[in-house]
Amino acid sequence: MKTIIIAGGTGFLGKNLAKHYSDKGDKVIILSRNEKKAKDNIIYEKWDGKTESNWSKWIDEAAVLINLTGKSVDCRYNEANKKEILNSRIDSTKILGEVISKSLTPPLLWINASTATIYRHSEDKVMTEENGEIGDDFSMNIAKSWEKEFYSRQTPKTRKVALRTSLVLGNNGGVYPVLSKLANLGLGGKQGNGKQKFAWLHIKDFISIVDFVIENKQIENSINTTAPSNIDNNTFMTALRNSHGIGFGFSQPKWLLKIGAVIIGTETELVLKSRWVSPKRLLDMGFKFKFTNINQALEDLKSS
Q1: Which residues constitute the domain of residue 99?
Q2: How is residue 161 annotated by DSSP?
Q3: What is the pLDDT of residue 40?
Q4: How far apart are alpha carbons 23 and 131 in whole angstroms?
Q5: d(C-alpha 159, C-alpha 143), whole Å
Q6: pLDDT tens column, 110-163
């Protein structure tokens, strides 16, 4: 049994990781803004994501720290939300680094969330870790600042890996239930022109990648955490409709998406940005994906 800390562990990815490691018999420490009673071998510690308190005692015991903290980008990019999106990521990463640097027995591994959105909009070139082009807008600058803070502090006893994660598909959170609902309402057509690349990852593969990073000590620095798939938005939405047995879905042009985004309080970038990303480092290191075909992945989600 090992101790694993998951900061921001009550979100979609954190809940799935916590269950996975708890089921394996590991002790899981969830750092959360909300207090909860311990359940099985999952312990909840309250933290604010920016200051040291009682939670820091677990740093000395933990073998692995996974930081998933950050305000959801599924919101309007007004100044208040922009500030919170940035600060929630930088502050949590900074305080974790400070506590690790003071620990006599720090975690052997620190995995920090990042995002495949760090790369520019691309319909012309696949982005790998070596040749990916990182641009200059709000979302990309958030990702750059996040990784800069993560790597800024020296942690000689702690290996560090940033996961540049694409859209993760799972039944209990994330984008899949939302898009499935749209499909069932007859709105499962292409979004925009449908040509933007759709980078995705099955939740089971996300968990397997975290396991792979823990087990393979040669893995360091940033890795693209996405399926080795080359599909566009139109292909994904067609596959989604087919998995639900829906023959037709109304398309949503860009102008309509902009209106809808204002109404539901989000941004069109989440569906219109072309993310063409390859998990080259994972493939080169021998990671085997369970789901590389979007139809297979969606059928699995529908049946589970």
Answers
A1: 3-234+265-303
A2: E
A3: 80
A4: 38
A5: 20
A6: 999 999 999 999 999 999 999 999 989 999 999 999 999 999 989 999 999 999
| Nearest by Cα to 24 from 208, 241, 246, 242 | 208
User: Which helix (H) or strand (E) segment is 191 a member of?
Assistant: none
Residue tagged 């939300």 (tokens)? 81
Q: Smallest Cα–Cα separation from 199: which of 144, 300, 303, 270?
A: 270
Question: Where are the extended beta strands (E) located within 68-156?
Answer: 109-115
- CATH number, domain containing residue 27: 3.40.50.720
In a domain, 241, yes or no: no
Measure the CA–CA gap between 21 and 3, rounded to whole angstroms: 9
> How many of the other CB atoms lie within 10 Å of CB of 107?
27
Structure tokens at 7: 């900061």
Report the C-alpha gap between 155 and 102 in whole angstroms.
Answer: 10
Burial label, 286 (beta-carbon count in 10 A; 0-12, 13-18, 19+) = exposed
Q: Which one-letter amino acid corresponds to residue 171?
A: N
Residue 38 covered by a domain: yes
Q: Which two tokens stand for residue 199?
A: 């980078």
> Is residue 63 classed as helix, strand or coil in its secondary structure?
coil
Question: What does the alpha-carbon distance between residue 225 and residue 279 come to, in Å, rounded to a whole number?
Answer: 6
With 0-12 / 13-18 / 19 or more C-beta atoms within 10 angstroms meaning exposed / middle / buried, residue 172 is exposed
Per DSSP, the residues of 123-136 read SSS-B-TTTPPB--
* Residue 38 clears pLDDT 80, i.e. is over it: no
- 253 within a domain of the structure (yes/no): no
d(C-alpha 81, C-alpha 74), whole Å = 10
CA distance 117 to 164: 8
- For 17, which DSSP code? H
The mean pLDDT value for 93-116 works out to 97
Residue 84 maps to a domain: yes
Burial 74-91 (b: 16+ CB within 10 A, else e): ebeeeeebbeebbebbbb
Total number of domains constituting the chain = 1
